[in-house]
Every structure is written in C-alpha cells, then in structure tokens.
Amino acid sequence: MTYLTAPDAIGAKQWYRYYVELASEERDCEGVPEFTRTIDVVVTQPSKDAIAQLVSACSWLKGYSVVSYNKPSFEEAPF
Predict the structure, then answer these.
(1) In what order do the strands lie in the sheet with 2-5?
(2) Using CA atoms, how far apart are residues 33 and 35, in angstroms rounded to an integer?
(3) Any residues with CB less than 8 A from the CB of 41 and at least 6 apart, and which?
(4) pLDDT of residue 76
(5) pLDDT band, very low/low/confident/very high, at 78 (cuts 50, 70, 90)
C-alpha cells in the first residue's frame, strides 16, 4: 500500500486518515476499470476535495479517479 501525508498534516493537532480507492479511466470490454489502486492518505480536512487535491498534487490522478474513501478500522490500522 502507498502512504501519502499532506505537508500541513505533519505536526497538526487534528488530521484525518482514509483508505482511498482509485480506479483507472481505462475500461475493459465490459466497462470495468482495468486497474485499481488503494492508498493510505492523511489530510487536515475531512473531504473528498482535500483528498483529491493531495492525490492530484502527486500526479496520481493522471489516468485515475477517486471512486471511494473510508476511514480504516482499528484492526486495519491500529496506529
């Protein structure tokens, strides 16, 4: 899994952690994304826009789009 932390989240008193699912814009013959990718993201604002801006700033949205994001459970990410 790839980890990505917003620069302003480092040392911030409040931050939000999400698992973000990206899907490629390329589709197979049935219209299903050819590739998917899950990344672990830390941002200071709990919004899809903040997540998309951070992911986009790293050029990871080139050819991909955010299809879902959710907070990891304690069992998935105990830290």
Answers:
(1) 2-5, 36-43, 16-24, 64-70
(2) 6
(3) 3, 4, 5, 6, 17, 18, 19, 20, 51, 54, 55, 69
(4) 61
(5) low
Nearest C-alpha neighbor of 64 from the set 20, 30, 29: 20
52-47-50-25 Cα dihedral, nearest 10 degrees: 0
The pLDDT of residue 6 is 87
CA distances from 61 to 41, 64, 65, 67 (A): 14, 5, 6, 11
Contacting residues for 79 by C-beta, under 8 A, at least 6 apart = none
- Read off the tokens for 40: 């672990």
Tokens standing for residue 31? 């219209």
The residue assigned the tokens 């990891």 is: 72
| Model pTM score | 0.78
